[in-house]
Automatic annotation (TrEMBL):
<keyword id="KW-0732">Signal</keyword>
<feature type="signal peptide">
    <location>
        <begin position="1"/>
        <end position="25"/>
    </location>
</feature>
<dbReference type="InterPro" id="IPR010916">
    <property type="entry name" value="TonB_box_CS"/>
</dbReference>
<protein>
    <submittedName>
        <fullName>Uncharacterized protein</fullName>
    </submittedName>
</protein>
Length: 164
């Protein structure tokens, strides 16, 4: 009788083990308290952790946001000339990267969003250079393009100083 009970427990344990593994790998999601955004200069750095993936899976992760950026023409003295030339853009920005899940089905990483280069946005007169002076990132989200997991990152991340 004790052999039967032992065999029954072994069978139950094996069944639980088999059923538990797919459940962990079948619920991809970003870990909210391990996903964050911060400014680094005029770029937005998004650090993240995603769990619930199959071990070894390669995932394409995309970060997107709405960018508001102000560019100004600045003279060699670091000042805005008397006839200031500037422009503000409002545009969607995004970047993607590939990440491989570890043996526990987790990926961790970071992606960086940047504003377009100043010289590609504003054409300045001779003796002046186009300069990115102010940025603001809103409506930030991170998405795993393969698993479909997504997370919105609340807040507005702004930096820079207009030149007078």
């Amino acid at each position: 009788m004790s052999k039967r009970i032992l065999a029954l427990f072994a069978a139950l344990f094996t069944a639980l083990l088999v059923l538990a593994s797919p459940a962990q790998a079948g619920n991809p999601h970003f870990i909210k308290n391990a996903t964050s955004a911060s400014l680094s200069g005029t770029s937005l750095v998004v650090k993240f952790k995603e769990a619930g993936l199959p071990s070894g899976a390669t995932e394409t992760v995309t970060v997107s946001a709405t960018l508001s950026a102000t560019y100004q023409c600045v003279n060699n003295g670091g000042k805005n000339p008397n006839d200031p030339k500037k422009t503000t853009i409002n545009t969607a920005v995004s970047t993607s990267g590939e990440f491989k899940a570890d043996k526990n089905g987790n990926i961790t990483g970071s992606l960086t969003l940047s504003a377009p280069a100043a010289a590609t946005v504003l054409d300045c007169p001779s003796g002046q250079r186009a300069t990115l002076t102010v940025v603001s990132y809103t409506a930030i989200s991170i998405t795993d393009d393969d698993s479909g997991a997504t997370l919105a990152i609340p807040g507005t991340f702004s930096g820079g100083t207009p030149i007078n």
